[in-house]
Write a structure and sequence with these properties.
Length: about 240
Amino acid sequence: MFDLSGKTALVTGSTKGIGLELAKLLSKQGAKVFVHGGTSIEASEKISAEIPNSTPLMYDLIKSDCADKLYEMTGGVDILVVCASIQIKKNWDEYTDEELENQFNCNVINSYRIIKKYAQYMKKQKYGRIVTVGSVNQCNNHPMLAIYGTTKCAQAKLVKNIAPDLAKYGVTINNVAPGAVLTPRNEKALADQEFKQKVIDSIPLGYIATPQDITPTILLLCSDEGKYITGSDIVIDGGMSL
């Protein structure tokens, strides 16, 4: 099961966190993987050296030409996972224009551009798997993540809107929304033991996830075993959003 031999995958934001663990898992299942970082080719090269059959690449996803530039480096792929995002924690009325625009550019506008670019190849070959990585913040209201949560809502809505069209070509697209996960992004906040316990107390299953709790579901959506799932928004949060 979950055999990806002969498939090629691009995972944006795959030098750390969920993206990193997913790149490892896709490679383990036989896929050729492009390891992407947004700021440092050295970081991509370091991770790629640890993942068999992978290729490092780097491009900043707040730039308007990122979809074209990525495609120049990868060509068409069978699997696209849009995992990279920008998250800035501030009160809703404290964002600068640049902080506002960077989050929307990376998380919504350029996610759309990347999906649009790679979907053309998938439609031609009558096969493709696209997964966007959302967040429990598209379900919950967080006082410091109003903009981030809004971008993730927009991303999930985009998936539902374009899924019917892509389905005609044998291409599936789904959104996965993780809850609290032990990743570098959350390291600083979760170092506060009192805050960490509050987070745990808000999760019915009683613990904070690791990336390995999230990636098997994404693997399902990337494989033939998940071929009948499209347009879905799958929340993986231990019940946090309930």
